[in-house]
Design brief:
- Keywords: Membrane, Transmembrane, Transmembrane helix.
- This is UPF0481 protein At3g02645.
- It comes from Cucurbita moschata (Winter crookneck squash).
- InterPro entries: DUF247_pln.
- With about 550 residues, the protein is mainly alpha-helical.
- Among the domains are: about 5-15 and about 50-260, no CATH class; about 350-490, no CATH class.
- The protein has helices at about 5-15, 30-50, 65, 90-105, 110-120, 125-130, 140-160, 175-180, 185-190, 200-210, 215-230, 250-260, 275-305, 310-330, 340-345, 350-355, 360-365, 400-415, 420-430, 435-445, 455-470, 475-490, 495-505, 510-535, 535-540; strands at about 370-375, 380-385, 390, 395, 445-450.
- The strands form 2 sheets. A 3-stranded mixed beta sheet has the order 1-3-2.
- The relative contact order is 0.09.
């Protein structure tokens, strides 16, 4: 019996991801049924022929838990590339004319129809790159790929045409019409996860266009891709063409250049954790024990006074005081979870469960931490000797939020066990809470404003991305070492220690202090009631008789 994980994933995603379908069925017509049969038979035949082979999906529909906050940052708004959005009415009307113009211009350089036929032969490979099953026949899909790949190649080249390594391409690719289309809206759509085209399709068309050795063709295409990523990347890249051509698509190239190597993962347990239920039970027992004191004291008073003839009058006055005491007690119970919240603030919750906990940039600066540039995410570190936190430079402009969001989405879908980029953004979100934090990182030349005008915009950007991207985090050794080093230094400062002591022993003791105040008030009220019944001045011999004329 055969198991096809990607086929199962594709089938599962069909009902979840298609916003245009009102029916749960993935088959909308008889022709769709026939294509499904061919699709399944091709997969089975491929696995029978080579059981070790696998078709790895790399182009996904972004799930709603990531895209709900800002869906426009994940779906194309101006330019559709690939089968997911090619036939969207508005996008089709916007750009199809330009796409066909590019295809018409390049006809003298490649045999367009033969190229489409070549893509038809790669039909299974193309479909396997897309996570959602494509209800298109092979010829339609091949034509979409040919038209969109040609246009994408033109757009990529228009971004980097002045690169010295690419001058040999000038005679093959014309950019006059694309130059006026190369604006921010187009760049944002090129990097969106749902808008990707498999890189092997670009390789095929590029090799057919320049008609040279495969190695030379791949080197030139890699130069185009790297040049484009350098132009748009918010982070510094490890520039190099090695391995670029083996990436899945343009967004994958950008991701691999930002994170050229997997950060070393660590899954160490942070030690046993005290169960919240045990904490609550312990605190409940302590509370019951403390509250038993006033009632025992009142019972003793009753025993002492029970022989008195005025005991019932005294008890009556005590009953009159119960609403006052009840008001004090209810004010103490107004927020029963407050103390538990204060205690949990001090809990050392593991980083992987609670996200990244680290002081803000302004808090760190206030305790003597300085900030300096590092080369990449992999080189983030904290030096205790110089009290310096090293962070990579991040350039923020008009396209940055879309790029960052789609990198997070791609990492979550393609590499769910390795979320180093998401972890880095969680770190930045923790460091940046207000405009003051942004200013500190700007002064250290870690945050570079490249189009954004206000510091508040940067704070909103980071907080917004990570709020809508709430997911579990994998552990990354280098990042965790830096985070733990910062926290260890920060918690060891005298100012921070004093603040923690106040929180622990003053704020967390408010119920005991309130209880003592209540007992004091209760005692005074009881004394007042007692004296009103038993005439305390005469009882204690303190009656002032100096003014008696008799």
């Amino acid at each position: 019996m055969f198991h096809y994980p990607h086929m199962n994933n594709a089938m599962k995603s069909l009902d979840e991801g298609n916003p245009c379908s009102s029916s749960p069925s993935i088959l909308r017509s008889k022709s769709g049924e026939r294509r499904w049969v061919v699709y399944i038979n091709d997969i089975i035949h491929k696995h029978l022929k080579n059981p070790k082979s696998d078709i790895s999906s790399s182009i996904f529909i972004v799930p709603k838990f990531l895209s709900a906050a800002k869906p426009q940052h994940y779906t194309p708004q101006f330019l559709a590339l690939g089968p997911y959005h090619h036939f969207s009415q508005e996008l089709y009307d916007n750009m199809e004319r330009y796409k066909l113009m590019i295809a018409n211009q390049i006809r003298h350089q490649i045999e367009f129809q033969s190229f489409v036929c070549r893509l038809s032969q790669l039909d299974l490979h193309i479909r396997g790159s897309y996570h959602r099953r494509l209800d298109l026949d092979a010829d339609t899909l091949a034509l979409i790929m040919a038209i969109d790949a040609l246009f994408l190649l033109e757009l990529l080249y228009s971004q980097v045409q002045n690169h010295d390594l690419l001058r040999p391409l000038n005679k093959f690719i014309t950019v006059s019409r694309c130059k006026r289309l190369s604006n921010d809206a187009v760049v944002r759509d090129i990097v969106k996860l749902e808008n990707q085209i498999p890189l092997f399709v670009l390789r095929e068309i590029f090799a057919a266009a320049i008609q040279c050795e495969a190695t030379e063709s791949d080197d030139l295409l890699a130069s185009v891709l790297v040049g484009f990523c350098v132009e748009i990347s918010p982070l510094n890249l490890t520039v190099g063409r090695r391995g670029v051509i083996e990436c899945a698509h343009v967004l994958d190239v950008l991701y691999r250049l930002i994170l050229p190597e997997n950060l070393e993962c660590s899954g160490e347990d942070d030690g046993p954790k005290e169960q919240p239920g045990n904490i609550q039970q312990s605190r409940s027992l302590k509370g019951n024990y403390l509250w038993s004191y006033p009632w025992n004291w009142m019972l003793d008073c009753f025993k002492i006074l029970r022989g008195s003839k005025k005991v019932f009058e005294f008890i009556g006055r005590l009953l009159d005081l119960l609403p006052i005491v009840g008001g004090l007690v209810s004010s103490m119970e107004e927020n029963p979870d407050r103390n538990r919240v204060e205690i949990l603030i001090e809990d050392k919750t593991p980083l992987m469960e609670a996200g990244i906990k680290i002081p803000t940039a302004s808090q760190l600066l206030d305790t003597g931490v300085s900030f300096k540039q590092s080369a990449s995410i992999k080189t983030i570190k904290f030096e205790a000797e110089s009290v310096t936190l090293f962070l990579p430079v991040i350039k923020l402009g008009a396209n940055s939020e879309v790029i960052l969001r789609n990198l997070v989405a791609y990492e979550a879908m393609a590499m769910p066990d390795f979320l180093a980029f998401s972890r880095y953004l969680h770190l930045m979100n923790s460091l940046i809470d207000t405009a003051e934090d942004v200013k500190i990182l700007k002064d250290a030349e870690i945050v570079v404003m490249n189009g954004m005008k206000k510091d508040e915009e940067v704070a909103v950007l980071f907080n917004g991305i990570m709020t809508s991207s709430s997911m579990g985090l994998s552990a990354a050794k280098e990042l965790d070492e830096a985070i733990n080093g910062v926290n260890k230094y920060y918690k060891g400062r005298p100012k921070v220690k004093a603040s923690r002591v106040i929180k622990k022993y003053v704020y967390s003791s408010w119920r005991i202090l309130a209880l003592m105040a209540t007992l004091m008030v209760l005692g005074l009220l009881v004394l007042q009631s007692f004296c009103s019944v038993y005439n305390c001045p005469r009882l204690f011999g303190t009656l002032d008789i100096g003014g008696d004329d008799s």
